[in-house]
Amino acid sequence: MGTLIYTGITSLDGYLNDEHGRFGWATPSEEVHAFVNDLERDTGTYLYGRRMYDLMSFWETPTTGTDESPVTADFQRIWRAARKIVYSSSLDAAATENTTIERVFDPDAVAELVGRADTDVSIGGAHLAAHALRARIVGEIRMLLTPVVVGGGTALLPEGLHLDLELLDQRSFADGTVYLRYAVG
Question: Is the whole-model pTM more than 0.90?
Answer without folding.
Answer: yes
